[in-house]
Design a protein that fits this description.
Elements (H helix, E strand, L loop, with lengths): L5 H11 L5 H14 L20 E6 L5 E7 L5 H11 L4 E3 H10 L10 H11 L9 H8 L17 E6 L5 E7 L20 E4 L3 E4 L4 H5 L1
Parallel strand pairs: 2-3
Antiparallel strand pairs: 1-2, 1-5, 4-5, 6-7
Helix pairs in contact: 1-2, 2-3, 5-6
This protein binds aspartic acid.
């Protein structure tokens, strides 16, 4: 990982090192960047879509093949927790948009504004050209990037999902993947990250994998 997310590994390791469950570890781990306003590609502070809305995609999967996901959810700081509740409390695997938000609110989550002044500034800078091009957007963002002292590579400025995989003392593997998706994407766009089998997959017999990169390419 990049240096800032060593904190995420540490949070997960605290659970694993005490003999805790891998699912708890990956959830706690990815909650670190979800709450970090300086992380512009996950959760709070994530760059918005082209309409200025922060929409989040997350999924989680355990050693039994159970899984849950939320897609294009707004106003919720920890979509990974909602994804876990979709897995644990509903008969479904995926909830999207308004329905995902409604479910989160009934589960006691609070609605929050996830667009930070820095991300709003970057979006306004991008609006000047309004050109969606994953290759040039990082260069625009470099100008507005407030990451110091965070050493994020410029190439990752318009996307940088966190995916985390862990194996616990019982040999059980879980994974979590959470993102605000590609910066300045179309409204309603969902990438690979919350899709089981694209952004994340766990097979307890074999291993697990999580992806980052341009989601359309990952899905293809
Ligand atoms: N895969 C993510 C997406 O397309 C972006 C990323 O990896 O940062 O939404």
């Amino acid at each position: 990982t990049w240096a800032p997310n060593m904190k995420a590994n540490k949070a997960a390791w605290e659970i694993l090192s005490k003999g805790g469950y891998s699912l708890d570890a990956v959830e706690a781990g990815v909650m670190i960047p979800e709450a970090d306003p300086n992380d512009v590609s996950v959760g709070y502070g994530g760059y918005p879509d082209r309409d200025g809305k922060v929409t989040l995609d997350s999924c989680i999967m355990n050693e039994k093949g159970q899984c849950g996901a939320v897609m294009a959810i707004e106003h919720i700081m920890h979509p990974i927790k909602v994804a876990r509740l979709v897995m644990e409390k509903t008969p479904h695997v995926q909830l999207v948009g308004e329905g995902a938000l409604q479910f989160a609110l009934t589960e006691g989550f609070k609605k929050e504004n996830l667009l930070t002044p820095e991300s709003e500034k970057a979006w306004k800078e991008w609006l000047k050209t309004s050109k969606y091009d994953p290759m040039t957007i990082p260069k625009i963002l470099e100008k507005t990037n407030q990451q110091e002292p965070y050493p994020w590579p410029v190439a990752a400025l318009n996307h940088d999902t966190i995916g985390m995989i862990a194996m616990d003392v019982n040999g059980n593997i879980s994974g979590a993947c959470t993102t605000s998706g590609m910066a300045f994407k179309m409204r309603g766009r969902v990438g690979d990250s919350p899709i089981i089998g694209a952004g994340l997959f766990v097979d307890n017999e074999i291993g697990a994998a999580s992806a980052t990169g341009v989601g359309e390419e990952v899905v293809k």
